[in-house]
Amino acid sequence: MPSTLRAASDAIPTRLKPPLLVLMNLVLSTAFSYFASPWIYKDVTAIQRPMTSLSDYMGLVGWRIIELMCHWVGGWDATQAASLVMLSLAPSMHYMHTFQPSHSPLIPTLAVVAAGDLLSLYLPLLFLRQSPPDSKSTPAKKENKIFDTTRLLTTLLTSTLYQLVLHSTGKKFLVGWLISSGWDIESVVRVHDAPEGVLLARSLLMIPIGWAASEIIFYSPNDATDSAITTYPPVEKNEGPGEEATGVWAYILRLWLKSLSPRGRKIVKRTLLVAAYQGVSATVALAGTVKGGDFKGAMGISGVWTLATVLVGAILGWVGNV
After folding, report:
1. b/e sequence 19-39, b meaning 16+ C-beta within 10 Å
2. Contact of 20 with 128, CB cutoff 8 Å
3. Apex 208 CA angle, 207 and 210, nearest 5
4. Model pTM?
5. 240 Rama sector, left if φ>0, alpha if ψ -120 to 50, beta otherwise
6. 214: burial class by Cβ within 10 Å (0-12, 13-18, 19+)?
7. How many of the other CB atoms lie within 10 Å of CB of 172?
8. pLDDT digit string, tens, across residues 146-194
9. How far apart are CA 79 and CA 215, in angstroms?
10. Which of these, 97, 306, 320, 156, lies nearest to 222 by C-alpha position?
Protein backbone atom coordinates (compact mmCIF):
# COMPACT_ATOMS: atom_id res chain seq x y z
CA MET A 1 0.00 0.00 0.00
CA PRO A 2 1.33 3.51 -0.82
CA SER A 3 2.81 5.32 2.16
CA THR A 4 0.24 8.14 1.88
CA LEU A 5 -2.70 5.74 2.28
CA ARG A 6 -0.92 3.90 5.08
CA ALA A 7 -0.30 7.17 6.92
CA ALA A 8 -3.97 8.10 6.48
CA SER A 9 -5.03 4.72 7.86
CA ASP A 10 -2.70 4.96 10.84
CA ALA A 11 -4.10 8.41 11.63
CA ILE A 12 -7.62 6.98 12.12
CA PRO A 13 -8.38 6.27 15.81
CA THR A 14 -8.55 2.53 16.50
CA ARG A 15 -12.04 2.71 17.99
CA LEU A 16 -13.38 4.24 14.76
CA LYS A 17 -12.01 1.57 12.44
CA PRO A 18 -14.65 -1.16 13.06
CA PRO A 19 -17.64 1.10 12.21
CA LEU A 20 -15.65 2.54 9.30
CA LEU A 21 -15.05 -1.01 8.04
CA VAL A 22 -18.80 -1.67 8.09
CA LEU A 23 -19.56 1.61 6.31
CA MET A 24 -16.92 1.11 3.62
CA ASN A 25 -18.03 -2.48 3.02
CA LEU A 26 -21.71 -1.54 2.64
CA VAL A 27 -20.90 1.38 0.34
CA LEU A 28 -18.59 -0.66 -1.89
CA SER A 29 -20.91 -3.69 -2.09
CA THR A 30 -23.86 -1.42 -2.94
CA ALA A 31 -21.82 0.34 -5.61
CA PHE A 32 -20.65 -2.95 -7.14
CA SER A 33 -24.21 -4.27 -7.23
CA TYR A 34 -25.54 -1.06 -8.78
CA PHE A 35 -22.99 -0.85 -11.59
CA ALA A 36 -23.10 -4.60 -12.33
CA SER A 37 -26.89 -4.97 -12.22
CA PRO A 38 -27.46 -4.29 -15.96
CA TRP A 39 -25.42 -7.42 -16.77
CA ILE A 40 -26.22 -9.77 -13.88
CA TYR A 41 -29.78 -8.83 -12.85
CA LYS A 42 -31.57 -11.43 -14.97
CA ASP A 43 -29.31 -14.29 -13.91
CA VAL A 44 -29.40 -13.39 -10.22
CA THR A 45 -33.16 -12.85 -9.95
CA ALA A 46 -33.80 -16.28 -11.49
CA ILE A 47 -32.36 -18.01 -8.43
CA GLN A 48 -32.44 -15.56 -5.53
CA ARG A 49 -35.39 -14.95 -3.26
CA PRO A 50 -36.71 -11.41 -3.81
CA MET A 51 -36.22 -8.92 -0.97
CA THR A 52 -39.56 -7.19 -0.52
CA SER A 53 -39.63 -5.92 3.06
CA LEU A 54 -37.54 -3.83 5.41
CA SER A 55 -36.89 -6.89 7.59
CA ASP A 56 -35.22 -8.62 4.62
CA TYR A 57 -32.75 -5.78 4.21
CA MET A 58 -32.21 -5.43 7.96
CA GLY A 59 -31.47 -9.14 8.23
CA LEU A 60 -28.95 -8.94 5.39
CA VAL A 61 -27.22 -5.89 6.87
CA GLY A 62 -27.25 -7.41 10.36
CA TRP A 63 -25.60 -10.62 9.20
CA ARG A 64 -23.04 -8.62 7.21
CA ILE A 65 -22.14 -6.62 10.33
CA ILE A 66 -21.71 -9.82 12.35
CA GLU A 67 -19.37 -11.24 9.71
CA LEU A 68 -17.33 -8.05 9.51
CA MET A 69 -16.94 -7.84 13.28
CA CYS A 70 -15.82 -11.47 13.39
CA HIS A 71 -13.17 -10.71 10.77
CA TRP A 72 -12.00 -7.64 12.66
CA VAL A 73 -11.99 -9.07 16.18
CA GLY A 74 -10.43 -12.30 14.94
CA GLY A 75 -7.48 -10.38 13.54
CA TRP A 76 -7.86 -11.58 9.95
CA ASP A 77 -5.93 -9.66 7.35
CA ALA A 78 -7.37 -8.76 3.94
CA THR A 79 -6.20 -11.95 2.16
CA GLN A 80 -7.41 -14.28 4.91
CA ALA A 81 -10.80 -12.56 5.17
CA ALA A 82 -11.25 -12.68 1.40
CA SER A 83 -10.40 -16.39 1.45
CA LEU A 84 -13.05 -16.94 4.13
CA VAL A 85 -15.63 -15.10 2.04
CA MET A 86 -14.76 -17.21 -0.99
CA LEU A 87 -15.24 -20.39 1.04
CA SER A 88 -18.60 -19.13 2.35
CA LEU A 89 -19.82 -18.28 -1.18
CA ALA A 90 -18.81 -21.66 -2.61
CA PRO A 91 -21.75 -23.79 -1.31
CA SER A 92 -24.40 -21.52 -2.85
CA MET A 93 -22.63 -21.34 -6.20
CA HIS A 94 -22.01 -25.07 -6.29
CA TYR A 95 -25.64 -25.81 -5.46
CA MET A 96 -26.89 -23.67 -8.34
CA HIS A 97 -24.66 -25.30 -10.95
CA THR A 98 -25.28 -28.82 -9.62
CA PHE A 99 -29.01 -28.87 -8.87
CA GLN A 100 -30.38 -25.94 -10.88
CA PRO A 101 -28.33 -26.04 -14.10
CA SER A 102 -30.78 -24.20 -16.38
CA HIS A 103 -31.53 -21.44 -13.86
CA SER A 104 -28.04 -21.03 -12.45
CA PRO A 105 -26.11 -17.87 -13.29
CA LEU A 106 -23.55 -18.02 -16.02
CA ILE A 107 -19.91 -18.27 -14.96
CA PRO A 108 -19.25 -14.57 -15.83
CA THR A 109 -22.15 -13.59 -13.56
CA LEU A 110 -20.77 -15.71 -10.74
CA ALA A 111 -17.36 -14.13 -11.26
CA VAL A 112 -18.81 -10.61 -11.07
CA VAL A 113 -20.85 -11.39 -7.93
CA ALA A 114 -17.90 -13.06 -6.21
CA ALA A 115 -15.53 -10.24 -7.18
CA GLY A 116 -17.91 -7.66 -5.72
CA ASP A 117 -18.19 -9.52 -2.42
CA LEU A 118 -14.45 -10.13 -2.20
CA LEU A 119 -13.30 -6.62 -3.11
CA SER A 120 -15.85 -4.93 -0.86
CA LEU A 121 -14.16 -6.70 2.06
CA TYR A 122 -10.58 -6.93 0.84
CA LEU A 123 -10.08 -3.24 0.06
CA PRO A 124 -11.41 -1.83 3.37
CA LEU A 125 -9.41 -4.35 5.41
CA LEU A 126 -6.29 -3.67 3.38
CA PHE A 127 -6.70 0.03 4.15
CA LEU A 128 -7.75 -0.18 7.80
CA ARG A 129 -5.76 -3.09 9.18
CA GLN A 130 -2.59 -1.87 10.85
CA SER A 131 0.62 -3.15 9.31
CA PRO A 132 2.78 -5.47 11.42
CA PRO A 133 6.17 -4.14 12.56
CA ASP A 134 8.01 -6.11 9.86
CA SER A 135 5.56 -5.19 7.09
CA LYS A 136 8.34 -3.82 4.88
CA SER A 137 9.65 -7.32 4.26
CA THR A 138 6.35 -9.20 4.41
CA PRO A 139 4.82 -8.22 1.02
CA ALA A 140 7.86 -9.28 -0.95
CA LYS A 141 7.98 -12.53 0.98
CA LYS A 142 4.33 -13.30 0.27
CA GLU A 143 4.56 -12.17 -3.34
CA ASN A 144 7.37 -14.59 -4.02
CA LYS A 145 5.35 -17.50 -2.59
CA ILE A 146 1.99 -16.89 -4.26
CA PHE A 147 2.67 -18.81 -7.47
CA ASP A 148 5.42 -21.22 -6.45
CA THR A 149 5.21 -24.90 -7.33
CA THR A 150 4.38 -26.09 -3.82
CA ARG A 151 1.47 -23.70 -3.52
CA LEU A 152 0.18 -24.75 -6.94
CA LEU A 153 0.31 -28.44 -6.03
CA THR A 154 -1.36 -27.76 -2.70
CA THR A 155 -4.14 -25.88 -4.46
CA LEU A 156 -4.70 -28.72 -6.93
CA LEU A 157 -4.73 -31.29 -4.12
CA THR A 158 -7.24 -29.27 -2.10
CA SER A 159 -9.55 -28.59 -5.04
CA THR A 160 -9.48 -32.29 -6.01
CA LEU A 161 -10.44 -33.32 -2.48
CA TYR A 162 -13.35 -30.89 -2.49
CA GLN A 163 -14.53 -32.17 -5.86
CA LEU A 164 -14.34 -35.83 -4.82
CA VAL A 165 -16.27 -35.29 -1.57
CA LEU A 166 -18.95 -33.14 -3.19
CA HIS A 167 -19.39 -35.48 -6.16
CA SER A 168 -19.72 -38.63 -4.03
CA THR A 169 -21.94 -37.12 -1.33
CA GLY A 170 -24.09 -35.41 -3.93
CA LYS A 171 -25.08 -38.79 -5.37
CA LYS A 172 -25.37 -40.78 -2.15
CA PHE A 173 -26.75 -38.26 0.34
CA LEU A 174 -27.51 -34.75 -0.81
CA VAL A 175 -30.11 -35.54 -3.47
CA GLY A 176 -32.28 -37.52 -1.09
CA TRP A 177 -31.82 -34.94 1.68
CA LEU A 178 -32.93 -32.03 -0.48
CA ILE A 179 -35.91 -33.93 -1.88
CA SER A 180 -37.06 -34.89 1.62
CA SER A 181 -36.64 -31.25 2.65
CA GLY A 182 -38.98 -30.09 -0.13
CA TRP A 183 -36.39 -28.38 -2.32
CA ASP A 184 -37.27 -28.22 -5.99
CA ILE A 185 -34.37 -30.03 -7.67
CA GLU A 186 -34.44 -29.47 -11.39
CA SER A 187 -32.73 -32.64 -12.57
CA VAL A 188 -31.68 -35.64 -10.52
CA VAL A 189 -30.36 -37.36 -13.66
CA ARG A 190 -27.96 -34.48 -14.28
CA VAL A 191 -26.56 -34.92 -10.78
CA HIS A 192 -25.95 -38.66 -11.21
CA ASP A 193 -24.83 -38.56 -14.83
CA ALA A 194 -23.35 -35.13 -15.51
CA PRO A 195 -21.74 -34.57 -18.92
CA GLU A 196 -17.97 -34.45 -19.09
CA GLY A 197 -18.03 -30.75 -19.91
CA VAL A 198 -20.02 -29.98 -16.76
CA LEU A 199 -17.65 -32.01 -14.60
CA LEU A 200 -14.68 -30.22 -16.15
CA ALA A 201 -16.29 -26.82 -15.50
CA ARG A 202 -16.94 -27.74 -11.86
CA SER A 203 -13.36 -28.91 -11.47
CA LEU A 204 -12.08 -25.60 -12.83
CA LEU A 205 -14.42 -23.68 -10.54
CA MET A 206 -13.00 -25.62 -7.59
CA ILE A 207 -9.48 -24.29 -8.17
CA PRO A 208 -10.16 -20.87 -6.54
CA ILE A 209 -11.84 -22.70 -3.64
CA GLY A 210 -8.79 -24.92 -3.28
CA TRP A 211 -6.51 -21.89 -3.30
CA ALA A 212 -8.59 -20.15 -0.62
CA ALA A 213 -8.69 -23.21 1.62
CA SER A 214 -4.97 -23.93 1.33
CA GLU A 215 -4.12 -20.25 1.79
CA ILE A 216 -6.02 -19.92 5.03
CA ILE A 217 -5.48 -23.41 6.49
CA PHE A 218 -2.08 -24.54 5.27
CA TYR A 219 -0.05 -21.37 4.71
CA SER A 220 -1.39 -18.90 7.25
CA PRO A 221 -0.36 -21.02 10.26
CA ASN A 222 3.23 -20.90 9.02
CA ASP A 223 3.26 -17.10 8.68
CA ALA A 224 4.89 -15.28 11.58
CA THR A 225 2.80 -12.19 10.86
CA ASP A 226 -0.50 -14.06 11.23
CA SER A 227 -2.27 -12.23 14.03
CA ALA A 228 -5.20 -14.63 14.08
CA ILE A 229 -3.16 -17.57 15.37
CA THR A 230 -1.28 -17.42 18.61
CA THR A 231 2.32 -18.55 18.36
CA TYR A 232 3.02 -20.94 21.20
CA PRO A 233 6.48 -21.74 22.56
CA PRO A 234 7.80 -25.26 21.93
CA VAL A 235 6.23 -27.82 24.25
CA GLU A 236 8.69 -29.24 26.74
CA LYS A 237 8.76 -32.93 27.36
CA ASN A 238 7.46 -32.54 30.91
CA GLU A 239 4.47 -30.43 29.86
CA GLY A 240 0.95 -31.81 29.65
CA PRO A 241 -0.54 -34.82 31.43
CA GLY A 242 1.86 -37.33 32.86
CA GLU A 243 2.19 -40.84 31.58
CA GLU A 244 0.34 -42.08 34.65
CA ALA A 245 -2.73 -39.96 33.92
CA THR A 246 -5.73 -41.93 32.71
CA GLY A 247 -9.02 -41.18 31.03
CA VAL A 248 -10.12 -40.14 27.58
CA TRP A 249 -9.24 -36.48 28.09
CA ALA A 250 -5.68 -37.29 29.23
CA TYR A 251 -5.24 -39.58 26.22
CA ILE A 252 -6.43 -36.84 23.86
CA LEU A 253 -4.06 -34.33 25.46
CA ARG A 254 -1.09 -36.68 25.13
CA LEU A 255 -2.02 -37.37 21.51
CA TRP A 256 -2.38 -33.62 20.88
CA LEU A 257 0.99 -32.72 22.41
CA LYS A 258 3.08 -35.66 21.20
CA SER A 259 1.66 -36.64 17.82
CA LEU A 260 1.19 -33.17 16.37
CA SER A 261 3.82 -30.53 15.83
CA PRO A 262 3.03 -26.91 16.80
CA ARG A 263 2.32 -26.22 13.13
CA GLY A 264 0.02 -29.25 12.93
CA ARG A 265 -1.92 -28.06 15.98
CA LYS A 266 -2.37 -24.66 14.38
CA ILE A 267 -3.67 -26.29 11.20
CA VAL A 268 -6.21 -28.29 13.21
CA LYS A 269 -7.43 -25.18 15.04
CA ARG A 270 -7.67 -23.18 11.84
CA THR A 271 -9.51 -26.05 10.08
CA LEU A 272 -12.14 -26.27 12.81
CA LEU A 273 -12.57 -22.49 12.80
CA VAL A 274 -12.94 -22.32 9.01
CA ALA A 275 -15.32 -25.29 8.91
CA ALA A 276 -17.55 -23.75 11.60
CA TYR A 277 -17.62 -20.38 9.86
CA GLN A 278 -18.30 -21.93 6.47
CA GLY A 279 -21.10 -24.09 7.85
CA VAL A 280 -22.93 -21.25 9.61
CA SER A 281 -22.43 -18.72 6.81
CA ALA A 282 -23.51 -21.13 4.06
CA THR A 283 -26.60 -22.20 6.02
CA VAL A 284 -27.72 -18.61 6.53
CA ALA A 285 -27.02 -17.67 2.88
CA LEU A 286 -28.78 -20.68 1.35
CA ALA A 287 -31.81 -20.58 3.63
CA GLY A 288 -32.17 -16.82 3.36
CA THR A 289 -31.47 -16.03 -0.28
CA VAL A 290 -32.23 -19.09 -2.45
CA LYS A 291 -35.76 -19.46 -3.80
CA GLY A 292 -37.51 -22.34 -2.04
CA GLY A 293 -34.67 -22.74 0.47
CA ASP A 294 -35.10 -23.63 4.13
CA PHE A 295 -32.80 -24.32 7.05
CA LYS A 296 -33.09 -28.13 6.89
CA GLY A 297 -31.95 -28.36 3.28
CA ALA A 298 -29.34 -25.63 3.79
CA MET A 299 -27.88 -27.50 6.75
CA GLY A 300 -27.46 -30.60 4.56
CA ILE A 301 -25.56 -28.64 1.91
CA SER A 302 -23.39 -26.78 4.42
CA GLY A 303 -22.78 -30.04 6.30
CA VAL A 304 -21.33 -31.64 3.18
CA TRP A 305 -19.03 -28.65 2.66
CA THR A 306 -18.02 -28.70 6.31
CA LEU A 307 -17.12 -32.39 5.98
CA ALA A 308 -15.05 -31.60 2.88
CA THR A 309 -13.23 -28.78 4.69
CA VAL A 310 -12.45 -31.01 7.67
CA LEU A 311 -11.08 -33.67 5.32
CA VAL A 312 -8.99 -31.06 3.51
CA GLY A 313 -7.62 -29.82 6.84
CA ALA A 314 -6.79 -33.36 7.95
CA ILE A 315 -4.88 -34.08 4.72
CA LEU A 316 -3.07 -30.75 4.83
CA GLY A 317 -2.23 -31.32 8.49
CA TRP A 318 -0.72 -34.68 7.60
CA VAL A 319 1.24 -33.04 4.79
CA GLY A 320 2.43 -30.34 7.18
CA ASN A 321 3.73 -32.97 9.62
CA VAL A 322 5.62 -34.91 6.96
Report:
1. eebbebbbebbeebbeebeee
2. yes
3. 65
4. 0.76
5. left
6. buried
7. 9
8. 557 888 888 889 998 998 888 888 777 888 888 888 887 766 656 666 6
9. 9
10. 320
